[in-house]
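so my prof wants the structure for this chain in the tokens format not the other one, which i didnt know existed until like an hour ago. anyway here's the sequence
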Amino acid sequence: MNKKLILGLALFAITSFGILSGCDKAAPTKSQKKEIIVATNANSKPNTYMENDKLTGYDIELTRAVFKQLPEYKLKFQVIDFNSVLSGVDNGRFQMAANALSWTAERAEKYGYSLPLSKSATSVAVKPGMKVKTLTDLAGKTTEVLAGVQVATMLETWNKENPDKAMHLTYMDASYPLTSYVADVDSGKSDFVMYDQISLTQIIKQQNYTLKVEPIDLGATDKHTGFNYFIFGKDRDDKTLQKKVDDVLVKLYKDGTMGKLSEKYLGGNFIPRKDEMSDAKD
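here's what i got, hopefully its the right format
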């Protein structure tokens, strides 16, 4: 065989091998993306809910906006009951939770919190004739709560410290939706439901209930009161993810994305103040 031909074939083989090798190295980029599973119960409208078989809501769409700017991750949502949302983050099944999650001291020991996503006044939904300004006005009244959440803990503490002004708490299953809590007030099954102003107002408007929403003076409160967060685990990878998410949240705050999503899903400007974007999570 002609020496030039042999040399040409050899060079072609080497070049082709180099090209193929280069392709082999570049191709796994997408497959090497780390999958991030975000847990939610899709039962806390307007933060997370199902609409036309699609998962949506403020927390959900904000999560999608965050991960659009984190191409190294592949985002996946897992709809599951509320109790499993937190336990799943705890055992590493999920890397993140987006579920209208509030801050509690107990949770803070086990989980990492993002920068705040939104802020809404703690309020009560009651019948129009009921006057409520402080917790004292709720003495002897009945309400339904979910054990372990911020509202339940606060009311339990109030009852313990004020036995003569205690409220009657009925503990509900985690699968019981907020809409049912509000419906029970409308029907007279309970006297009030305490939650955030945004959610209560939207539910009453959507269901056309004859109820009113009153912000309630809680006195001296923890600085986390009213804020909504993403939750993460606390190992090294979780902290890395949390830092990246926080950095993007700041960008989305500055470019107006958070404000637009708040207007669309929460019905107004309920994003934190600029100074609260750092202080509120400490």
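also thought this was worth mentioning. The chain has two domains: 34-119+226-277, 122-215.
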